[in-house]
Each structure stands twice: as structure tokens, then as C-alpha cells.
Amino acid sequence: MAVFTALDEDELAAFLQAYGLSSDATRTPLEGGVSNSNWCLDFGILSPALVLTVIEPPIARSELDFVFAFQRHLDAKGLPLAAPLGRSDGSLWGTLAGKPALLSPFLPGTVAVAPDSRQAGQMGELLARMHLDAADFTPRRSNPMGLPDMAAIVRRLDPLAIETAVPGLAADLASAFSEALDDWPQGLPAGAVHCDLFPDNVLFAGPRLSGAIDFYFSCTAPFAYDLAMTHAAWCFTPGDSVFREDVSAALLDAYARSRALSSGERAALPLLARVACLRILATRLRDWISPPEGASVTAKHPAEFAQRLRFYSGDRGARAFAP
Ligand SMILES: Nc1ncnc2c1ncn2[C@@H]1O[C@H](COP(=O)(O)OP(=O)(O)OP(=O)(O)O)[C@@H](O)[C@H]1O
Ligand SMILES: N[C@@H](CCO)C(=O)O
Known about the structure:
By secondary structure, the protein is of the alpha+beta class. Helix content is 44%, strand content 14%.
């Protein structure tokens, strides 16, 4: 979280009452994220722990309904995730300090900093199940970080600052954007997808995946794009971005065992992985070059995804997705 929202105790008590809960809970801040404020609420032995989230921009209030309905849809199918709890009046969120706020179950475990192939296999299986279960979810949300949005972010950045952050990156960005605009694959199977399934959005309790969090970028997009984004996020060593062939094979094999990829999807994966890198580069460059006002966490350096973009532009990147 960048800044913790200050909570008013009376307002919080009224908020909890809307869920039929007392305010008699121990509140512990959850560190780790960059945008929202999260606390663990512990009500003692009588009821399970919950997470209180106060949502910060960039998501528009009008788009929260899609995000929460998608989570509840997957939850109803039995997938492991922290879906928002319903309030006494049937709504899924209220407000605290003038911002959208919600409660969800506390998932046990920790995130995998450098996921191994067993963890990636579980991720691949869950991702495929999410995509299959999205088939009968009808609401739509256009991608808030689609190609035009990322291009607009990058256009607003000083090219010199981009070059200072990562030498040579401006030219790589220009050619990847132009290729993506010219060759974006049409007609791929699409539906509601998570679109931000980084290892820090998936918890493991011991060896078992306990659930996915942070659905705020979920939207309607090709399933293969979500797979490419997850691949770019999971299959490299943190920091130096060395490709992990074993992790990649485990993720892709587990995915394909549950949801077969069409030949069109497989062929599109290298380009979609490059676009996934562009999307992460856009926000990481923006936050690196102009950190949000008041931010108390260090922005993530863009170099990692510059290296991954280069990987997916080469032969090894193309081979990573071969059957
Ligand atoms: N339902 C949950 N159960 C257990 N822990 C949670 C839950 N929700 C959030 N957390 C913890 O809080 C941390 C921050 O949450 P989250 O990732 O939602 O914040 P964020 O600000 O949206 O982060 P980012 O934008 O970087 O993904 C997570 O890394 C996780 O450890
Ligand atoms: N998952 C993104 C942050 C959300 O946009 C990143 O690691 O840069």
C-alpha cells in the first residue's frame, strides 16, 4: 500500500454493522501492496478472520460491480479466491473515508517470491479453471489497461527519462507497440479474465495454493492474453529475470491439461506476452519516473520487464510456447 487511509472508529463500527458484525476486532495492517489499504480483522475464536480493504484509485466506482460480480461468480463455482462478502442489504461494498470499502475472507499463507514448478502447476490449473468458469459470466468490462491506455501512458513520458531508466528501451517500446497495433490477433476466445495474476496476488498455505486476490484489473479480454500475462509474471527469476524453463513448462502444461489451447491461441502467445510486458512497463515506467505523490513504497524498477520483453522478442521466447 502506498498510503494507509485513516479510519474513523464510529464510521468503521457502522460499516461493520452493515455486515451484522461488531467492531470488537483486532485490526492489523497488511503490508505488501502498492495501491489499496488492507487490514486483517480478527474477531477471536468465534468467527474467521476477514480482510478489510479500502480501495484507492485508479478503479472507477462504476466498474467495481464487474470486478466483484466476477469474483462472486468464480467463488460460487468453488474456485479458491477472496470474494467480497455480502452486506445485510445485499450490496457487496460500502464506503469508508469517502472511498469504496469491502470485506473478504482472510486467506491463509504467504505469496511465493520465486515460484517453483509445483506452485506454477497449481497456478496453471487455477487459471484454466477460471477461464472455463468465465464462460457463463455475461457482464463485460473493457480492459482499463488496453493497448491505447498503455500507449497513452508511455507517450506522456519523457523519452530521455525512459532511456535513463533502461538504456535502449525507447526503441524496443516503439517497435513492440507498432507490431502489437499492426498484428493484434483477432477472434481469439475471450471472456472475463484476472489480468494481473502476479505471484504477489496468489497465496500458498504450505505447498497448497490457498487463493487469488486483487481482481481490480479484471476485464473482458482474450484468455490467451491472461495466460501470457501470467507467464510473463511467473516464469523468470525475480530481479535478474532469467527464464525458468521448468516453471514455464509446469504452468503451460497444467493449463493445457484443463483447457486445451487452440492453434491460433498458441501462435498468438509470443506477441501477447510482449504486449503483457508493455502493459507492465507502462505503469512501472510511469511510477518510476514520476512516483505518485505521497507514495511511501519504492516503485518497482522497469528493467525486469524490459528484459522479459527482449526475451519474448527472440527465438527462445517463441519456443517457450511451442507444444
Ligand atoms: N484476502 C486476503 N487474505 C490474506 N491476505 C491478503 C488478502 N488480501 C490482501 N492480502 C495481503 O495484503 C497484501 C496487499 O494486498 P493487495 O495485493 O490487494 O494490495 P494492493 O495495494 O492492491 O497491491 P498491488 O497493487 O501491488 O497488487 C497482499 O500481498 C497480501 O499479503
Ligand atoms: N502487477 C503489477 C502492478 C499492478 O498494475 C506490477 O507488478 O507492476
